[in-house]
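Lesson 9: reading folded outputs for more than one chain in a single document. The general rule is that every protein is listed as its sequence immediately followed by its structure tokens, and records are never interleaved. Here is the first one.
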Amino acid sequence: MARQNGILRKHGFTLIELLVVIAIIAVLIALLLPAVQQAREAARRTQCKNNLKQLGLAIHNYHDTNLVFPPAYVNAVAAGDLNVSGFAVRLLPYIDQGPLYNLYNSSVPVTDQPGSYDAAACAANLVVVRTQLAAWKCPSSAAPELSTPVIPAGALATGFPATTLTVPYARGDYCLTSGVRKAYSLYTYNGGISGKRNGAFAVAGSGGSVRSFKDITDGSSNTICVGERTGSTTMYVKQTPTTNPAIVGPSNINAVTNGVGWGDFLIGENWTMGTNNDATTSTVTVSGVTDDGGPCAINCTNARGSYHSFHVGGAHFLMVDGAVRFVSENVAAPNFGGSLTAFMGETTSVVD
């Protein structure tokens, strides 16, 4: 403020100066915002990696206690029986969730239609599987925290289930590896067919078994046992939700049987067949052998049989030895497919 000729004058910004300052601030924000977003995603990615490390430690502790890996899931002994339980429940005591494990009753299924089963025990199991567990959720995921598959009566087989099932599951963004099949098997073995569930973990129950470290003859550092796959009844193409019937299936059946939560036994059944880049499948021929599927196994879709994350460029995978690796979505099929199997004799491996 100055006095000239007895007149008090106020000095301030002119309109042009104000606009210049605003423009400079806008440019600085535009430069800083991507850096802030990248820093946040880096932190989320680190937490996601740590989640898998925690699950890997739990698997090793389970093996130390039981001398075998947990079964991928325990299949029902009788045809039409709903009592199928997944491997994640067995890991609860090893991720500091002992009270939750004690609440679960393995003699009854997770169902809102108990029938002849004990209704109170079934209700307790429902409480367990809809409990949110940080170790099972990737912070980068955009999927809902809770998914509620509605499986119509007779949707899975004639007369099965007998009534419509509605089960809410807390999200689970990691799944087991069941091996390779169909088109992805052709890509992996150059036309050879591997139709077995030859992943690190086996299905127990009716005709099933369990595996241990001695069964991982391809090497524990070369074999994947758990990978990222966004758990949700929302189906994605890349990172965009889709309602394409070719992907979600007739009457949405693929979505509701997608293995949507950590307590859903279907996260133990992820048998990789691959898709096209648009998440659809087609008939492919490799070395004269034809089957269905596609060449993409990472980040094209979260449909069961693929792996999926909201990270740029790939997804995290837990090796049997406990290491966690970030695998590119462009990884060669022989390398990735070979790492999904535990005893096929491959010498190749995925790399960071």
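And here is the second record, again sequence then tokens.
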Amino acid sequence: MIRAILLDDEEIGIHTLTRLLEQCGGVEVIGAYTDAVKGLVETLAQKPDVVFLDIEMPVLNGFEVAKQLAAANLLTKTVFVTAFDDYAVQAFELNSLDYLLKPVTQARLQKTIEKLRHAASTPPAEEAIDAAIQTARMKLNRVVINNNERLLLLDPLDILFFTTDQNGVRIVTERKAYTTKETLGYWEERMSGFDFFRCHKSFLVNLHKIAELHPMFNNTYAISIAGYGQTIPVSRRYSVALKEIMGI
């Protein structure tokens, strides 16, 4: 059973999320607070598996609460639940498990619960090993891909972008493209330390290779990549985060 605490300064937000969590099954809401300070104190005391945090709250906002929990070295996971997509980058910089946009749907919340269950099934020692492997990969500064039963080592700086196709994921460099069977989500996680950005459900781009941003309709953009003749779409979902990263 996953033990959860909810922090939201609006009762309707707490009521809605509680109902959705009950429908997910396997989740026990052990506390729900509209007062962020009280919620923080109870979270530190009860040490739940996860705390669902609104961001814009009086006195203490969600980020301040998350920083306090991180400083306490709790194993509690944080999930931000907000009506605004402006804060996604900050949320993941705080190592949040997930970032949910209101109104939260049952299907989307179910994916978060699956992430929680996976995290709970991973022993702390295994997490430490995974972290050490990731650090070693970054020091090695190479990406290992399985291409047609051959293991290839690519320099991340040579990769322009990743994109999905009918055979899996295509890794495009300035000289060649390679196809792998892993998902784009897998590569997004693997490349998290190498300045790659998910700009669309089908694209993961190297931020250092962006040459131009072209404004499009409905607050979306198209990206021109250095050394690549076609533009890449930026969906509305990711536009705000990209603008924040690029300082525009």
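What the second record shows: The longest helix spans residues 124-140.
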